[in-house]
Design goal:
Strand content: 25-35%
Number of helices: 4
CATH class: Alpha Beta
Number of strands: 10
Number of domains: 1
Order of helices and strands: EHEEEHEEEHEEHE
CATH superfamily: 7,8-Dihydro-6-hydroxymethylpterin-pyrophosphokinase HPPK
Radius of gyration: 15 Å
Distance between the termini: 33 Å
Largest sheet: 6 strands, antiparallel
Length: 162
């Protein structure tokens, strides 16, 4: 199944952290990384008293169902040193979110797909739009339309030198 992941970091060389997470994903037997957006410098969301983030979106192919895929993402975060204690939406070394899983809607105690706040977050939709502008989000419409409702002014695409 195809799935879409959000990646973010604002600690300890964020670009390096995203590249490391992508490498770890690619090394697993259950995941093939198909495409990765550009990396974007984005203002913090929620808790604004912190460094800017580096964000990206990846399209993957996976043999895992949504819940096991979430556990794999959390395992990668944990092995990379993600600290879950602390303030909500605070600084983080790595953040991996399952945004979409095929055209499915999925809900359990641990996971909701599509990601319930992705529609509020330009730092998710801008890189997703770069990869597939006409992507249809189950129950919500096209990325293109969703982006029109958001302020994207603080989001800057990184150049290869950044």
């Amino acid at each position: 199944m195809k799935a879409w992941l959000g990646l973010g970091s604002n600690l300890q060389q964020p670009v390096k952290q995203l590249k490391e997470a992508l490498n770890r994903l690619a090394e697993t037997d259950q995941v093939t990384v198909l495409r990765v957006s550009s990396f974007y410098r984005t203002p913090p969301w929620g808790d604004k008293q912190q460094n800017e983030f580096i964000n990206a979106v990846a399209e993957i192919e996976t043999s895992l169902a949504p819940a096991p895929l979430l556990r794999l993402l959390q395992l990668i975060e944990n092995t990379m040193g993600r600290q879950r204690s602390g303030r909500r939406w605070g600084p983080r070394k790595i953040d991996l979110d399952l945004l979409l899983y095929a055209e499915q809607q999925y809900q359990s105690a641990e996971l909701v797909v599509p990601h319930p706040r992705m529609f509020e977050r330009a730092f998710v939709l801008v890189p997703m739009f770069e990869l597939e502008a006409e992507l249809e989000v189950p129950g919500h419409g096209r990325i293109e339309k969703l982006l029109q409702k958001l302020d994207c002014s603080g989001i800057k695409r990184l150049t290869d030198e950044a």
